[in-house]
Structures are given as structure tokens and as C-alpha cells.
Amino acid sequence: MMKKECIAMILAGGQGSRLGILTKRLAKPAVPFGGKYRIIDFTLSNCANSDIDTVGVLTQYKPLVLNSYIGIGRSWNLDRRNGGVTVLPPYVKEQGGEWYKGTANAIYQNIDFIDQHNPENVLVLSGDHIYKMDYGPMLEDHKKRNADATIAVIEVPWEETSRFGIMNTDDLGQIIEFEEKPLHAKNNLASMGIYIFKWSVLKKYLIEDEQTLGSHHDFGKNIIPTMLLRGQRLYAYRFCGYWKDVGTIESFWEANMDLLSDNPQLDLYDPHWRIYSVNPTQPPNYIAPNAKIRRSLINEGCLILGEVENSVIFPGVYVGAGAKIRNSVIMPYVKIGANVCIEKAIVGEASIIRKGCFVGCKDLDDFYFHGDPNYGKITVIGENMDIPRGTVIENGAMVSSED
Amino acid sequence: MSLMMGIINNTKNGNQLKELTENRYMASVPFGGRYRMIDFVLSNMVNSGIRNVGILVQGKYRSLMDHLRSGKEWDLDRKRDGLFILPPAYNNCPLGMQKGDLDNFYANLEYLQKSRQKYVVISGANMVCNINYQQVLQMHQQKQADITIIYTEELGEVHDASKSTFIYTTSSGRVVDLEINPITQRSNKISMEMYILERTLLIDIIDECISKGGYDFVMDGILKNLQRYKIYGHHHPGYVGRIHSVQSYYRHNMDLLNSEIWEEVFLRSGLIYTKVKDQAPVKYMEHAVVKNALVANGCVINGSVENSVLFRGVRIHKGAKLRNCIILQNCVIGEDAELENVILDKEVHVSAEKQLAGLKEYPIIVEKKSRI
Fold this sequence. Notes:
Chain A contains 9 helices and 31 strands. Chain A is α/β, with parallel strands linked by helices. Chain A folds into 2 domains: 4-259, Alpha-Beta Complex (Spore Coat Polysaccharide Biosynthesis Protein SpsA, Chain A); 286-399, Hexapeptide repeat proteins (UDP N-Acetylglucosamine Acyltransferase, domain 1, 3 Solenoid). The longest helix of chain A is centred in the middle third of the chain and has 13 residues, at 199-211. Chain A is elongated, with a radius of gyration of 23 Å. Chain B has 372 residues and is α/β, with parallel strands linked by helices. Chain B folds into 2 domains: 4-268, Alpha-Beta Complex (Spore Coat Polysaccharide Biosynthesis Protein SpsA, Chain A); 283-366, Hexapeptide repeat proteins (UDP N-Acetylglucosamine Acyltransferase, domain 1), CATH 2.160.10. Chain B is 21% helix and 28% strand. Chain B has helices spanning 37-47, 62-68, 102-107, 109-114, 133-142, 199-211, 217-222, 246-255, 259-268; strands at 4-9, 30-31, 35-36, 52-56, 82-86, 119-123, 127-128, 147-153, 165-169, 175-180, 189-198, 231-235, 241-242, 282-284, 289-295, 300-301, 304-310, 315-316, 321-323, 326-327, 332-333, 338-340, 342-344, 349-350, 355-357, 364-366. Chains A and B meet through strand 14, strand 16 and strand 19 of A and helix 9, strand 14 and strand 15 of B. Strand 16 of chain A pairs antiparallel with strand 14 of chain B. Chain B: Residues 13-238 form the Nucleotidyl transferase domain. Chain B: It comes from Geosporobacter subterraneus DSM 17957.
């Protein structure tokens, strides 16, 4: 097979347990986002738009939705004769076989896959970040500097440095120190979990790390520090732009709300950097004569008879007459009955909220009293729920089925 | 394997939609916010289990090819069967254009001979509807018909009678007479210009007509054979939008603003597939006031829109007002511009504060890529 310059490995096995009932049935990268997408669409589209044509997707936790969603990669233009997308779950070997124990171990278990493509470099990505990035210039920098590894970094607010892996570099961008979640950071350049490695070098370290007792088999905790210690050439690549790890219910909700401002940092309408996704084949949305819609994203197949404000509505949603939805994220194929009020909530796929329910508010007065998106907690309703008529689901509640 | 194959006949309905058909044939005229006319018949065929579709083309078919490409969106990129574009063979007619559609059928006879399905569904591309041909085939077989013509019954006066084909049937459904484009309407049964017949019979009809100097499938193949073949009518009870004039184009686009019709055409039985453009969801901004509108993805709306259909990627700036408009893909409406009863073809830019108004019966059409 022809030698590839760079192939991508997307880590998509995480449960995302802090997303609570949103990841009950699917892995975090498969969680719907932005009225149309699943989180992994951003990384896959970045690959497609950066002309990376060989992508391995490492799955583990509840992979059914993700596997069938990715398919042969057609939606991202990754159905290629030579390369394309390959879903890589853990598998059984002669000596047993095991789950992916950490990010580095996941790549280690797929050394054969990478060797088969015989790439010069391997790009390691996370499948659960929301951002638009051209990996091309990063790869150019990596080659120009003859780096063993290049790590993408982004400036984060100083007060948040203790949540990230912080890179300390010299003037030329070479990494001299790496601190995982430091209490007193020396700078505010955080690792984005995006790495380009020289494959020949990485392979050596992966094999060695696998033999190391007590290792977490993790890039941030083990591979990078060991490489630094041995004096390998590690460089930082600075990324400017929108980047968000939607790890919690709050950050997931916020990232959706971020899209509603007049000029959001993350531009979904750029014809030169399309975010691809699987098309649900739905007609244009229909807005009825008495509907009111402001500051919202609404996808195709929606039938809106009521009022929608400051919300993100996925495809195929029905909003009945007199219903009021504000500061909320409504997932695909949700049916919302007449006169339902929903305030600051996330409603899971295909749920039915019957007539006259109040979600995230007690009654109509309470609904009118609210309105400030920063006020109150986020209410979450799981998928495939059927909320009977007139139910009141109070602010901050989490509702999901038993199983 | 499905018993049926499909032929979409796009050789008729040339320049009926004025500016909209200047550079495209009926089949690739944009319709309903994100579709082209051919999507309806093609999706109906695919949803009826048909996996072998030939498209007869003539004249300006570049935009059609661009739309269909490999047939991927309709799942017609198959190893066996799939999508076939059937171009004309102009060497049969020195003037470059054929008189009717039979020459095209004849030029592609080999495709019909090589196909394996027993029955053929023939349809034009100017009907907006959601129909399952499986049911029509069942009736065709029950009646042991040679040819089945699908029709609708219209109450009251029909628009564009002179562009329609009317049929007369007995109580058992047998077609006894046919009138093509009469000036005055005498029957309330209008053909949907969709036919089912056996493939071998179609080949025979084409061969025989051509050898007798015929040129039109319906005129020579069906009308002249009313006595000879058992021809039955199949009544389609659902919604049908017949597009053969600017007025009907405008009216049937507006029909989709009735949520009943919207659901029937797009969601109730089969889905309507089209070329995917991967556009973001519609963004309704701070000053958006939208009432009774059909809006496709990729639109960004900050003005007021009423009784209108917006195609993909339309930008409506602050203060702009639209009423009773059909705005095709990627148009931009500047601040405080006002449009009423207007059809904008693709990529038209209307600059700030411009006003444009047509009449409901005679909407203004603005040509592709115009700057106003």
C-alpha cells in the first residue's frame, strides 16, 4: 500500500459519565449537538476538510449508535478505496485480549492497523471536542521542526489552568515542561488533546509503556512526560479559535447556547469549512402563522406552532400551539404538546411531553418570571420518555427511565 | 428483486417556467425549499422498491446531471441496476432536437432490452406527490391490464387544462378515451402522466410506433391503441401538484405552507431524498419575525418573512420584509428591502432598501445571479 504521510486516530471510547443521562445509551462522541450534529462530526469534518483520508475511530463504551452512525464514512467523504474510516473496537487475541485501558493503550492495541497504512506521522484526536481546526498547518510545523511530537495548545483563562495539562515552552515553541493540572501554573497554554507523533518514535514508546508496571497507559500522564524526560523533540502548536470540551451537562448546554449569539465564535455557516453529518432526509422546517421564533437554531423537519426563544431545536421536532420554549436544547423527534412551557432544559431524543406540562418552571407565572438564561439550574429529560399531561418537572430535575 | 423498473421522461416540458427553465429542464427546477422536481418521482420510485431507473434527457441537462451524479442520495449507486442517464441520439434528426419522446426511447432501446424487471413505471418529472407504485402494480395485475394510467380526480375547474391530459373511464376503470391538452375541460379525471406496463410491451410499442413514423409515446403509443390494449385507470387519492406554468409553480410551492400537505408530501409514506448540502440548521436571529413559512437549512434570518418558501442558504438581513415570496438557494436580501409576490432564482442579491412587488397571479421572476 502507498505510504501515507499522516493518518488520524480518534479516541471515541469514553463514557462521558458527567453527561449523566445524556450518555445512558450512547458514547459521548455520539451525543447530539448544535441542532444537527453529533459531537464526533466536528472531529471527522476537521479530518475531511484537512485532507486526511485515513481515520481510525476507537470505540468502546456503548458503541452501537456511534458505529451505525459512522458506517463507511460516506457522510464525511471518508468512503475511500485506499484508507477511509475504520471503526476499531477492542478485540480478542490469542492471549486473551482486553478492554482499552487508557488512551495510549488504545493506540497500542491498534499498532497493526497503523502499520498497515505505514504512515510517517499519526495524528491522535479526541472524539468529544467541539472545534474547527485545519490540521494541515500543524502537520507542516511538525515536519519543518523535525519534531518527534507536536501538541496543539490553546490559551485558557488563568483561573482555569488547574483543570488542564499545561505546557511550558521556550521562545521557539519547544516544550520544556509539562504539568498536569497544576495548582500554580507558569503559563496558560493548555493541551487540547491533539497530538501529531512521528510514528516510528511513538510506536517505540507505546511498546515500552505497555511493559511499564503501574502506568496509566495515558498520553498526558505517561507517554508525553516520558518522551520529555528522554529529551525527545516536543513542540507546541498554538491554536486560536473556539474549542470546547463538552464534558458536563452545564458545558454541553452552554456550548449549544454559544451558537445563538449574533456572531458566534464557532461559525457553522462557513461554506469553506462545512461540518458534515448524517443527513436525516427531512423537509424544510414549517413555521405556522401564530408561531414566534427568536434567537434560535431550528433544523429541518420541525413543525413549529408555538413560541421558541433562545433555543436549539434538532430535526423532526413538533412544537404544539401555545407551547413556549426558552433557553433549551430539544433533541431529534421530540413531540411537545400544546401549552407546554419549557425553561432551560435539555429534552432527550424522541421524548413526548404531553399537553400542559411545565418543565424547568412551576407554572406560567414562574415561566414569565424566569428568562435570564443564567438563572436557575438545567433540567434534563432523558430519551424516549413519555411525560403525561399536566406534569410539572421542577427546575434542576433529571428525569429518565429506570432501566 | 423488484418486479418494476422506472423510466423518468424528462424530454417534455421544455421552457414552461420562463426564466426558471432558461438554463434547466423541468426535472431540475428547484421546488419546495430544498428539492428539485425530479426528487419527487425518483424518491417515489425508490420508496416503491424500484432499484433500476433510467432517465431520458434532452436539451439542457447539465444541472440535472450535477444534481443526480452517481445516484448516491437515492441509494441508486448499485453494482447491478441503479441509475442510468439515457441521452438522445441526435444523429437521427439533423435539426438537433427531436419532435417527440419516442426517438429518445428508441435510441435507448438496448437499455430496456437488457433490464431484467418485468414491469416498467414511466413518469414525467413535473408532478409533486408522494405515491407508492407497488399499490398501482397490484391493481394492474388484478385487472390484468396491459397498461395502467394513474390519474387524479379534480373537483371544480382545473388550472392549465390546455397543458393536461384528461381520461375517460368506464365504471370498472377501463380507459375509453383520452384527450391531450384540450382547451376546454370535459372530464374531471386528469392523468398524472404515469404509466405501468410490461417491459416487453413497451419495447413492442416503441418499435411499432417508430416504424410507422410515430414520435410521441402517449399520442402514438397509447391514444391510437385504446381499442387494442386493455388500458385501465388507477385513481390516486392524494395531493398532486402539477407544475407546467409559473402560476402553478408558485401556487404549489405555496401549497406546502399548509401543514397537512407538507406532512403528506414529505413525511407520511416515503421520504423525499435530494442532494445533501450539509448546511447548518436555520438561524433565527434577534429581529426575526417569521409566520407561515417553509425554511430550509443554511438560512440566516434577521428580518420578517410571511407566507414564503426559503431555499437553502438564504440570508435575510435586518429590517427586510418578505411576503408571498419564493426565494431560491443562496439569495441575499439586504437591510430594509421589501419583496412581495416575487420569485428569486438562485444567488440573486437584492441590495438594501430596494422594493419589488409582483401580483399574486403574476409573480415577478428574477433571473439567476441578478443584482438588484
